Amino acid sequence: MTDKSNDTVAAELIEKLTSRKAIIGIIGMGYVGQPLALRFSQLGYKVLGFDIDQKKVDLLNNGQSDIEHIPASAIKAANAAGMECTADISRTSEADALIICVPTPLNKYREPDLSFVTETTESFVPYLRAGQVVSLESTTYPGTTEEELLPRVSSGGLTVGEDIFLVYSPEREDPGNANFTTNTIPKVVGGHTPACLEVGKALYGQAIDRIVPVTSTKAAEMTKLLENIHRAVNIGLVNEMKIVADRMGIDIFEVIDAAATKPFGFTAYYPGPGLGGHCIPIDPFYLTWKAREYGLHTRFIELSGEINRAMPEYVVGKVVRSLNERRKSLMGSKVLVLGIAYKKNVDDMRESPSVEVMELLRDAGAEVAYSDPHVPVFPKMREHKFDLSSVALTPETIASYDAVVLTTDHAKFDYDMIRANAQVVIDSRGVYRAPAENIVKA
Fold it and tell me: Cystine design at 336: which of 125, 159, 195, 401 (Cβ 3.0–4.6 Å)?
């Protein structure tokens, strides 16, 4: 505890943050943590990056990048400005702000797995001191900050809102989208108390162009879920429309493009082989799980989840029918999957539906290969295993496969060359709009 007045603790921390004299600790140096660390470093803050992976720590400290869209030059510049990475969690005591950017996956029962958040918090609790702010950015269900972080942060006798400050501010990153950077994406911030909110606004106010304060951490947590559930539900809708349109002999992409000319009341969403990324396939289930505590059944959200999870099987069904029409069986056929990152022009493999397509093809007896200019070697993943490297695309290579499945529409692919040489292309992204004998839309 501190013998300073409560207002003085908050005021001194706010002054440190706004004058950029504060030390910013980023816990979890991945797709969310790294851009945030670089942004604070660019502004002149001393940054401490924490990660349990010593190899990642060493890589970053040596000025190298493990994320494709973050150049090594940016890491080197941050290091030169004083950024340092460490696996020593006791050094969290040095930081004035601790920003938690760790994964929040689902377990095998599709229930929230908060172990990364809770174990991370417990690891730094012994080193907490008065005059710090703890901000959780990981996506989670409403109530997590109050139910999981609050008791842990206050367990050592520090009073939240007086001695130490607790904030929830959901991450908003869109890898591969050149139109937005960390500082140009508005930042939602919720505090456990009014004082916590003021500290949270001071923390992010220097780094982000626009701060969007809300009245509680619960409201901030729900905001993040609504954003991603909105996308998941609308993608589920358009995926279902794709199936109906296909059965009717209608090109769903033509329909969407035409509907998108309406200047009001319509937002274009496009179908695909399923949902990918850390947020959209996972976040809806955080709310459905929490809603059951209140006796509610979120039917709309769960239905969209069922539709989206069925898309990889739909794509593989198209592969099977395409091969059958060519008097071939899926078993024993050579199938090339184009693009295994979850979205175009990035190397992010999290929850990629392409991997499930590959597994379904493999399990059915196909000889599976892949090509992805952003993923040269199939990475180690918790739930998926392939001992494969990316295949270089040439006319001869393309022609050697019985089927080519386009699952991620990277800009680096030569689509004209692929169409000209492939025996059949199963297109799940709507790249090929003009009809062709060897193009099958999925």
Answer: 401
Span 115-174, pLDDT tens digits: 999 999 999 999 999 999 999 999 999 999 999 999 999 999 999 999 999 999 999 987
Instruction: Give me 18's structure tokens.
Output: 């706004």
Element (H, E) at 190: strand 187-191
Pull the structure tokens for residue 113. Answer: 């797995």
For 384, list phi and psi in degrees, rounded to 5: -130, 145
What's the pLDDT tens digit per position in 42-84?
999 999 999 999 999 999 999 999 998 899 999 999 999 999 9
* Alpha-carbon distances of 36 from 25, 172, 185, 213, 336, rounded to whole Å: 10, 10, 12, 19, 37
Q: Which residues face 53 on adjacent strands?
A: none
**Active-site residues: which are they?**
279
Can you give the pTM of this predicted structure?
0.90
Cα 269 to chain center, whole Å?
18
What does the pLDDT read at residue 2?
A: 44
Angle at 207 (CA atoms; ends 202, 210), nearest 5 degrees: 80
For β-strands 133-136 and 334-338, DSSP reports them as unpaired
Average pLDDT value for residue range 319-333? 97
- Token pair for residue 230? 């909105």
Which domains does the chain possess?
A: 6-215 (3.40.50.720), 254-441 (3.40.50.720)
Quick one: tokens of 187? 């930042």
Query: Residue 220 has which token pair?
Result: 């901030």
Q: Express each pLDDT in 284-317 by its tens digit.
A: 888 999 999 999 999 989 999 999 999 999 999 9
Quick check: 204 pLDDT over 60?
yes
Buried b (16+ CB within 10 A) or exposed e, 210-236: ebebbebbbebbbbbbebbbebbbebb
Vertex 62: Cα angle to 57 and 65 (nearest 5): 75
Q: Which residues of 78-101 are buried (b: 16+ CB within 10 A; e: fewer)?
A: bbebebebbeebebbeebbbbbbb
Q: How many distinct helices (H) and strands (E) make up the chain?
A: 16, 13
- Report which of 127, 94, 71, 84 is spatially closest to residue 16, judged by C-alpha positions: 94
